[in-house]
Design goal:
This protein is α/β, with parallel strands linked by helices. It has one domain: L-arginine/glycine Amidinotransferase, Chain A (5-stranded Propeller), CATH 3.75.10.10. Helix content is 25%, strand content 22%. The protein contains eight helices and 15 strands. The strands form five sheets. The protein has a three-stranded mixed β-sheet, with helices on one face. Strand 6 and strand 7 form a beta hairpin. The chain is globular, with a radius of gyration of 23 Å. This is Amidinotransferase. It comes from Sedimentibacter hydroxybenzoicus DSM 7310. One of its GO terms (biological process) is L-arginine deiminase pathway. GO terms for molecular function: arginine deiminase activity.
Amino acid sequence: MNKEAVKKDIDAIAGERWFPKESYFGDDIEIYWGKWGVCSEVDDLKSVLMYRPGKEVEKFNANEVRFSDEPIDVELMRNQHDNLAQIYRNHNIEVYYVEQQREDRPNAVFCRDLMFMTPEGAIITRPGMSARRGEERYIAEALAKLGVPILRTINGDGIFEGANAMWVNRKTVVLSTSSRTNKSGYEQVKYELEKMGVDNIIPMQIPYSNIHIDGIMNMASEEIVMIHASQVPYDVCDALKKCGCKILEAPSTTEVRSTFGCNFVALKPGLIVMPEGNPRSQELLENNGIKVITVDVSEIMKGKGAIHCVTAFLKRGQ
């Protein structure tokens, strides 16, 4: 070989010559997915997901699904659900529905438990009770049809229900464990929240006699939180006070436990819709500047849930 031979000059392969769009997922949602996202329990409510009771409530074993033993008036239950949905519509809140559900899952009306909405999309839950497992599939189908981003489905040995988390503000979430949320489910949700900038997770252990946060604590405005004092840990109350919240103690155990006085939904800061039959709780809230709309959900309450339980938030705020 002639060492003096001229070597060929081979052109370098060109680079891609483009750079990715660097942005936060939350900034992309409205552009590519739609107007979805929640980081508050009280910002103006814009859209919700609900499930109107179907065949699953017509015949079931109350003890197996943890319903009241009282007979249910099925048509009245549906009418009460419709009345609540109409209140939402009257306040310019868009109501979407889960169109399909298992016919052996009467608890499916309680949509809040099946998803938890964040500023970047939904977390699909994994119910703790065997009589509810599988309902979440149809929530996922409804969200996918709407175009709501699904960030995670609780997996592995994780258990988590949406009512075991409560937004305080964009940076702060109360996250609880209970018989419906175990440590694995808690950590999976915590991981997702921290990725989107939530840097203040307030841990809460739900007492054995309760299952969800919204049965014992709820926000009526950016400053007002009503609690069932005997069931909410001091550390949680202290953390909420440090966030600027005023704590109102529900005046009646009967109202909290029997007529779901804490299980209300804020339509906007300082305006809530709550179950009928809670006069002492209503008076306390009104004396602290909260406007209250009441609605009869007595048949729905036979499933041991109320207004907040049947309402999954899709969009709050601008």
